[in-house]
Amino acid sequence: MDYSLRELTQASGHSADTIRYYQTLGLLPPPRHEGRNAIYEDAHLERLGLIRSMSRRGLSLKVIGLLLERGGEPESDRALRAALEEEANEPIYTSEELARRLGVPLALIASIERTGLGEIGEPESDGGRYSEGDLHAARAAFKILSYGFPLTKLLTLAVRHDRAMRRTVDDAIELFDRHVRKRHGRDGEDPVLTARSFKEILPVVTSLVVHHFQRLLVQRALKRLRRKGEKGPLEYAVKVAARTRLGVRWS
User: Fold this and answer.
1) pTM for the whole thing?
2) Residue that terminates a domain, selected from 190, 209, 243
């Protein structure tokens, strides 16, 4: 089916400016032209849906570009869409709904979003921003605040972690794209293998990150207590560290 730009905006829910922006980034192929008229196709509509799905999972436009860079075969796009949407099969909340469920002022959510921690990747909002997982994470963050951490200092630490994590994630996506997606996508291989690899790798990588962070935090905390010579707290901390392990999923 063919679409004019206006028809594509209506079918996709993206503005004309966003569609042009995606074209300049190389996320969306250019339309064909009949005279002065730009003509879009179903493949453009499918690609816009895939970009939105990825954005809702918190992927930056740079990461989305890396995922789509291989060549844009529709089979590969559909396989990745299925894998990502399976992970995204949960409610999506607006900022207002998130604030209401957390029982906090909307202004507080807005202040957190201004730090970039609430970024969803798209240059426009379609009213959906936060997942069920985001809601649980936000509740955990507010529980940490209940122990007396200052909000401004905790946010500063969270932003530093977020910036470092984005760089790591971008590099990890590039590795996946170069060594997994491209390998499965050539020589007639089934692109579903790419999606299957993504689904298998994601929980393993997540477990590795969680394990490394906890292990490093415990080691550094114990080292600090030893350096200060606080024998009593050190002995207690060692016992707690030996008993406390997050549930890590390795398979």
Assistant:
1) 0.57
2) 190
